[in-house]
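Structure tokens please, single chain.
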Amino acid sequence: MSSSRTRGKAPIVPRGRRRNSRNDSKTLQSSSLPGIASASTTPASTFPSAYPTEDEAEFAEAQKIQPFRFLDLPSELRTKIYSCAFSPVPLVIDLDPYTFRLLQRLKSLSLFRVSRQIHRESSHHFFSTHTFRLFPTFPGRYFKTKRPLLARLPARYRASITSLQLRLGPGWNNPPPGWVVNNALGLGGCTTARVLKVFVECDPSDDFYKGWRSGEGDYEVFCSSLLENVLAEIPTITVVELDGYAAVKRSGDMMAGLTKVIKKFDKVIGWGSESGWDKEEEQVAFLDAVLIHGATRRASRSIAA
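Here you go.
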């Protein structure tokens, strides 16, 4: 009886062995059928990979834009680039809020922070190609300040300035106390200044100002003394350019006093274009030439006769 019972029963197989046999049969069936992927392999994705291949990485590396070596350019080209960068800046720099707002908005002076060499080149170009006003004329606290723009600049920047402007006329009835030439102004540091532009807005000696001026000839004497002190502090100035509004007469007391000071220091007198005095100077020179040549011709004719 025991032998018959054992023949009808299936042999006992461990559970782990039974599962492995099932998996093996499935893998055999799947591998035998064509077109059916195996469960152990990963199907190919139809979406592009987020990581570039080796060929794509090499191509991107070859196409990468290299930084431009600005200092490899000749100095002449760098100077032209500096001129284009500073072209929106006004030619005359004064101590007023509009100029500083413009510089901050344009960020033209950001070149000073690139490197030491570019700072040295760009700053020298900026301060040597612009005219800097000695005393501020903007009304308010800037006009009455005791520290003009020149006194606020570092010494290395003042050494690059080649052109200065002295504007006369604002506060003619009561000049501000800050309009004085002293060591704090820093004129001694302008060692490369060559041109001083004097612009006259008004001449109180004119009859139009009669009854309004505090004293006869006080402002004219003040302006002449101011110009004399400036020329004494900057001996490198060779040309003094005189200019003014059309209402200012060239033959007035103001211009006569300024011309006398310029001749005292033996400086060359130039004439600006706004007043029209340059045309008058050409006419006077032409008349002098005509009179001189006419007199010599008459003398030669009389001698020949």
